[in-house]
Amino acid sequence: MIAKRKQELWDALSAVSPGTQLREGLDRISKARMGALIVVGDGPEVLNVCSGGFLLDAAFTPQRLSELAKMDGAIILSSDSSRIARANVHMVPNPNVPTTETGTRHRTAERVARSVGVPVATVSEDMAVLTVYRGDEKYQLESIPNIL
Question: Coil, strand or helix: which one is 36?
Answer without folding.
Answer: strand
